[in-house]
Amino acid sequence: MKEMASTALSEVMLPNLVVLKPVDTLDKAAEAFKLYPFHHLPVVDEDMILVGMLSSTDLERESHGRSLFKHHMKNQHDDALFRSLLVREVMVDAVFQLSPTHTIRDAYEAFKKGRFRAIPIVEDGILVGLITPLDVIRYLLEDD
Q: What is the pLDDT of residue 70?
């Protein structure tokens, strides 16, 4: 197990990511969360420079914080809300990140200490991947 802990994140990370732009509306993010089995979306500029992260929890917080709750038109209200808010207005912009040369142990320590569930992998400012605790577990438990 100790040998595996020194594996570089470049071997474990998810390299092909669905990303958002800061000027995308929240309805685009909501659609992505419906289509794909993940809970975090990196936010990048035109050059793939990481500028933030958006989680499905961020969307839920917006929906519930500005919601009509049990009103019969709640869904229409939320749809209109998500079409009017930009990702940059909701995303977290101070994002902890690691590089592809960091190790599984580094990711483990970050997950253990931090309050986040996904870490973007950045090289020279450019987003190259993402890692979650599930990715680490999958890597450690899968057979070659």
A: 58
